[in-house]
Every structure is written in structure tokens, then in C-alpha cells.
Request: fold
Amino acid sequence: MVSSVLQKVSSLVGPSHVSTDPDVLAGRSVDHTGRYRGRASALVRPGSAGEVAEVLRLCRDAGTHVTIQGGRTSLVAGTVPEHDDILLSTERLCAIGEVDTIERRVEAGAGATLAAVQRAAAAAGLVFGVDLAARDTATVGGMASTNAGGLRTVRYGNMGNQVIGLDVALPDGSVVRRHSRVRADNTGYDLPALFVGAEGTLGVITALDLRLHSNPAHRVTAVCGFDDLGALVDAGRLFRDLDGIAALELIDGRACALADEHLGVAPAVRGDWLLLVELASDHDQSERLADALEGVRASGEPAVGVDLAAQQRLWRIRESIAEVVGLFGPPLKFDVSLPLSVIAAFARDAAALIQRHAADAIAVLFGHIGEGNLHLNVLRCNDEQERDLYAAMMDLIADSGGNVSSEHGVGSRKRRYLGMSRDDADIAAMRTLKTAFDPTGYLNAAVLFD
Reply:
């Protein structure tokens, strides 16, 4: 059955854009961390929305499962196939249109990388509102599918706040094109919002209209050290409400020590916990930042960067964390959203839980403190230790009033825990939508629902 489908698909997209090479498929069937693996029968790379739609129709009619892949930076095994799937890659859908500087928007293919969109915006004197450490690999289609957040969420919001319109290939082989040139368009259902965050379960995003923002003329960055996480959270509340806030990042002192030891990236200040704060505006924010720093209970003098070179040095420790968490093999990742009031207690309880289940493991906590969006990484944790630790940690997150997913999505790794954050009626409503769009359940079947 699969071979007959592939013959038709090959005729459609071209033989050079279909691969059944075992080595290629093996590389494409593992998640970003290297921790989770699946299996696939073929890789298909359509070159247009029409080709995507036709591939979907052919696979649906043949009863063949399809897993969508963009930059494959999912941290919850969201692009790992489970049913000997056909992998549908959006990598060829990478065109970026001319930036509309008047309306501050740009159209980009789903396969365009975040870095490419950022460069296009910068060339036009504008800025794109989402930034991630994986900017060179992550695609805007995948980011919309998971409603990604990142380093600038405290100022601009998540990916959904940047999506003005989109093209989506539906599971039945049709294409929805929702675009509008006007800023206020309250006509019918908000379809873009439906597909943003759906993790590819309702359709394949093929192109997006993205909102751009003015580029602030002045930035000032500071890093403060704290001995007490509660004091850092209090400072985060203060900075979060400042006009001009552009970034607010929690950095674990253990990550700083590892970056210093293994990467030669020394932190600008010392502390068990670090807080990076950045203000940006059309006028100098240095005095406002200095006044705010006076009100925090830091463990020492902060490091402040006014010029670009100094700011980049302060950001370097935050940017190095992605490399740090891979120093000891594939990390075990927990992407959580917590009320600010429980973060200090959660960090303490999580460390104790990790010690109990994996005594030699290293816990590294970082994230976007303004939203309580944290990334807990467990280093040196083997597969056997993971089995018990994962369930126990998810229980702790739920007991702390947290959400099982903040910006990475549910993927396949967290689908059994969906009920911790959504009640039965909510999940039933989501399943109704899934069935309406994809009655046979062939599209991204491993994702979201257990």
C-alpha cells in the first residue's frame, strides 16, 4: 500500500524530493534531544501548498499515517513518528516575501527559519517578536503549531500574537487561505487561532502572515545575582511591570558553573540564581533600570550593559545554556508553566525528587520568569531512572498548580498527562475538533491525544 502511494507522491513532488533511504529516515525519526526514536517509511518534501494538500489526500485515501516535520526542534517528541509514517517536511516552503514596512508585516513559508525571518525584518528596520535559542533551525510553521514563546514573550507575547493570517492544507486535501489586508477583521471564526497551538493535528500550516514591530533605538541590559530564588522571583515581578521591558530571564547558577567550566563562558556576576533583564525603548532606559535595580534584594552589584558589545557579553551566558544541557548526553526536559508564588518551592521540591530517583543527575532550571514559563533539564539521567522520575515530576507540577506544557506543546511525550491541565469536557471538545477535520486520525496521530 505504501509503495503505491509513494509512486503517486513521487510523480507529484518529483523523485528527488522523496526518500526511503534507511539512514535518512533514521536521522529523521529521532527527536531534537536524541532521547526518543520512532520509525518511518518515507520522507516527502512538497514544494507548494497544493502539493502538500495532494500528498495529504493521497495518504488519507491509502490509510497511511503522516507526521509533519519542520525544523524538528520539538522537545516533546512532537515530530517522532510512531506508525511507520510518511514524514512530510515543510523545508522547501521557505520563501519569504517582501516586508511591508507600512503595515509592518511579512509573508513567510512555513519552512522558513526564525533566523531568516529575523534577518528580513532587521533589513527593513523592524523586529520580529519571537526569539529562540534554536533560531537557526526552528521554522515559523512549527513555532506557530506549538505557539512557541521564547526570550521576548514578556514584551511581544507568544507566536500566536504574531500570526495575522495563514495558509493551511487540511487533512481532506483542501487548502484554506485566510489573509486580510486590514488590521481589524472580525469576520466569522478566527481560524488562524484554531491552528496555532494545534501541533499539526488539524492541518499543515504552509505559509503565514507575520506581524512585525518597530525596532527600539535604545536597549540596556543587566544581570543580577541572587542567593535566594524567592528574592529573584520578587524582582521578576517588579521588572515585569516596567514600561519598556524586553526580556526577563532566569538562569540557574549550576548552568553558569557548567558553562564556565566546560565552555569558558564566565558569568558576569555570581549567585545561586541569575536574573537577566533588558529594557528597550525609543529613548534611553538606563536611569529607569538603575532605579529599579535599587529595589531588588540581589547578592551583589549587578552587571549592566549599555553598548551592544556589553549587552552581547551579558546575553552569552543565557545563550550558552542550550549547549550546557547537552554536555552529558540527551537531557530529560520538563517544560512547565507555574504560578510565580510557587516557583521557589517547586525548585526545592523538584531538586529533592530528582535526587531521590537519580542521585547522580544534575538539575538545571532556566526560563522566562515574567510568565512563570520554566525549563527544567535533568542531566545524566538514564532511561530506567526516567521512567519513574517523569511521572513523579508531572505529579509535582500538577500539585503545584502548574500546566504540563507552557511553550513546547504536548507532543507525544506528554499526551498521557493532558488530563492534568484540561478537564474531561475540554479534552472531549478538542477531540471533536480533531474528528471533524481528520475523521480517520491519520495526521500527526502520535501527538496530543493518548
Q: What stands out?
A: The domain at 105-214 is CATH 3.30.465.10 (Uridine Diphospho-n-acetylenolpyruvylglucosamine Reductase; domain 3). The chain has 15 helices and 16 strands. Residues 383-399 form the longest helix (17 residues).
